[in-house]
Design a protein that fits this description.
Blueprint lengths: L9 H7 L9 E2 L11 H7 L15 H11 L6 E4 L1 H12 L4 E6 L4 H8 L3 E6 L10 H7 L5 E5 L11 H14 L2 E5 L23 E6 L12 E4 L2 H9 L8 H10 L3 H24 L2 E3 L6 E6 L7 H9 L2 E2 L14 E4 L3 H18 L1
Parallel strand pairs: 1-11, 3-4, 3-5, 5-6, 6-7
Antiparallel strand pairs: 2-8, 7-8, 9-10, 10-12
Helix pairs in contact: 2-9, 4-5, 10-12
The chain binds pyridoxal-5'-phosphate.
Length: 362
C-alpha cells in the first residue's frame, strides 16, 4: 500500500481502504488545534485583500520585530519562515554534507531534509517498552560523532517531552564537542503551562536552534507561518539560502492579532487538559496502550495485538475515523496508530468505536 507521507489526507486513506468517497468522516490524522482558527482571525482575513497586490517586505522587518518583542528576544535572533517545514529545510541545508543524529520515531521531514542536503544520518530510537522515554546517556555518547542533533519537543508522534535537565545536558556537551542542537517546538503551545519552552536558553547557548510553527495552534496550515530562533550569526547564515518572499503577506499582516491570542492559547490548554484526562482514563479502562503524551495527539495500540495495528486501523476507517498510520515513523513501522485529540463530540465517538472494537475482540 502506498501510504501518504503525512496526516491530513483523509480522502486518500478512505480510497486506499477501498471506501468510496465519504463526506462524513472524522479526521484524527492531522494535529491541528481542535478549537479551530480564532474567530478574530477569520474576521480579519476579509480585510487582507489589499495585501494580495503587494510584495511582502523581503526582510519581514515588522513581523520579526513583533515576534522578537513577543518572545523577549532581539530581532536579529528571529527568522520568519513558511511554516516549520521551511525552517527544517533551511537548517538541514546549513549542514550540507555533515553528520546528523535524529532521535526516532519523530517527524519524518528531518530525515527527508537531511537526505536532500546529503547529510550522513545516524539514529537513536525511543523504545515503546520504556514508554518512549528520552535515552539521554545514549544521545550524549553519540554526540561527539555528529555535527547536529535533531529533536522534537514535544515529540511528534509520541507527544512526549524531553526534560529541561536533559536538554541542558545536551547543550553543555554540544558546547564542548561542537555539536548543534536543533529543537522543533512546533507543538509547544499545547503543553501545560508549567512546562517551559526553550527560548530563554538562546542567550546562553550558541549551539541551540529552535523552530516554531504557528500553523498548529492557530489551525492555519494553509496560510503557513513559522520562525527560527537562534543567535544572530546563525540567523544570518540561514537567511542567505531563503527563497525571497517565502512567507506570504496575508499571514504576516495577521501577525499582530496572532501574537495577542494568549487567552485563546490558555483556553486551548485548559480544554485539552480536560479532554486528555477523559481520553486517557477511558483508554486505560479499555486496556489500550497509549503513549504518555502531554499534547494534542498520542500513539495508540491494542496491547492484545502485538505485531500490527493494521486491523484496528481498518476498523476505525470503516467507522469513518481517519487515524494517522505510522509506517513512515522509524521504530514504529505501522505497529501503532497516531490519533489527534479532536472536538469533544468526535472524541466521544472515537471512544465509543474503540469500545465496539474491544467488545468485538473479546
Ligand atoms: C513536528 C513538526 N514540525 C514541523 C511541522 C511543519 O509545520 P508547518 O505546517 O508549520 O510547516 C510539522 C507538521 O506536521 C510537525 O509535525
Amino acid at each position: 500500500m502506498k501510504w501518504p507521507n503525512h496526516g491530513g489526507q483523509p480522502k486518500r486513506i478512505l480510497e486506499l481502504n477501498g471506501i468510496k468517497q465519504e463526506d462524513r468522516y472524522f479526521d484524527f490524522s492531522a494535529n491541528i488545534n481542535p478549537l479551530g482558527t480564532p474567530l478574530v482571525l477569520k474576521e480579519q482575513l476579509i480585510k487582507t485583500f489589499t495585501e494580495f497586490e503587494k510584495y511582502p517586505d523581503p526582510d519581514y522587518q515588522e513581523a520579526t520585530k513583533l515576534i522578537a518583542l513577543h518572545e523577549g528576544l532581539q530581532q536579529e535572533q528571529v527568522l520568519l519562515t513558511n511554516g516549520g517545514a521551511e525552517a527544517i529545510f533551511l537548517i538541514a541545508q546549513m549542514f550540507t554534507g555533515k553528520k546528523a543524529l535524529i532521535i526516532q520515531p519523530t517527524f519524518s521531514e528531518y530525515e527527508r531534509a537531511c537526505k536532500v542536503y546529503h547529510l550522513e544520518l545516524s539514529y537513536l530510537t525511543l523504545q515503546p517498552e520504556k514508554d518512549f522515554s528520552f535515552p539521554l546517556e545514549k544521545v550524549l555518547n553519540k554526540m561527539e560523532e555528529v555535527d547536529v542533533v535533531f529533536l522534537c519537543r514535544p515529540n511528534n508522534p509520541t507527544g512526549t517531552v524531553v526534560d529541561l535537565h536533559d536538554i541542558k545536558a545536551l547543550l553543555e556537551k554540544g558546547t564542548k564537542c561542537n555539536t548543534m542542537i536543533v529543537v522543533d517546538e512546533a507543538f509547544i503551545h499545547f503543553l501545560p503551562s508549567h512546562i517551559e519552552d526553550l527560548s530563554f536558553l538562546i542567550e546562553q547557548y550558541s549551539n541551540l536552534i529552535l523552530l516554531r510553527s504557528l500553523t498548529k495552534i492557530y489551525a492555519i496550515p494553509s496560510l503557513r507561518l513559522g520562525y527560527i530562533i537562534a543567535k544572530p550569526a546563525m540567523i544570518d547564515l540561514l537567511k542567505r539560502n531563503q527563497i525571497p518572499w517565502s512567507v506570504n503577506g496575508v499571514v504576516t499582516s495577521l501577525l499582530p492579532s496572532l501574537l495577542t491570542q494568549d487567552s485563546f492559547i490558555n483556553e486551548t490548554k485548559t480544554w485539552l487538559n480536560r479532554q486528555l484526562n477523559d481520553i486517557k482514563s477511558e483508554l486505560t479502562k479499555l486496556d489500550f496502550y497509549y503513549s504518555p503524551t502531554q499534547v494534542n495527539f498520542y500513539l495508540l495500540k491494542d496491547q492484545n495485538q502485538q505485531d500490527t495495528s493494521e486491523q484496528l486501523f481498518t476498523f476505525l476507517v470503516e467507522n469513518n475515523i481517519i487515524p494517522r498510520h505510522t509506517h513512515n515513523f522509524r521504530g514504529l513501522d505501522g505497529k501503532f496508530i497516531r490519533l489527534a485529540v479532536r472536538s469533544e463530540k468526535e472524541n466521544t465517538y472515537l471512544l465509543q468505536t474503540l469500545r465496539l472494537w474491544r467488545e468485538k475482540k473479546c
